[in-house]
Amino acid sequence: MNPPGVIDEQVFAELQDSAGADFVAELVGSFLDDAPALLAALAAAAAYGDADAFRRCAHTVKSNAHTFGATALADAARALEHTPLTDLGADAGPRVAALRGLYDAAAAVLQGRRHA
Which of 21, 68, 77, 83 is buried deepest, with most CB atoms within 10 A? Predict the structure, then answer.
């Protein structure tokens, strides 16, 4: 079941049509395996003030989420990517935590798609 707005059905269907369901299942598996470490690296970059690493991690999350039609996750990651870490200040940690929540929602849907 896809809660409204978690995965764009059209984007996901187009990906499966163009790449094939089996390959998409592999891509989803890689994303689910890699994203937790990427989100941890994003949080660490925020905590240590590493603006370049923060931007790169946010960019990667954005790009990967966009691939699967995880629009809310992609949009939140894009906002982090384009906001200087110094401007986020104390909001960086809560914004990364919110991003993790969006990832968790998308991951739950994608996990179901992977085994469908």
Answer: 77
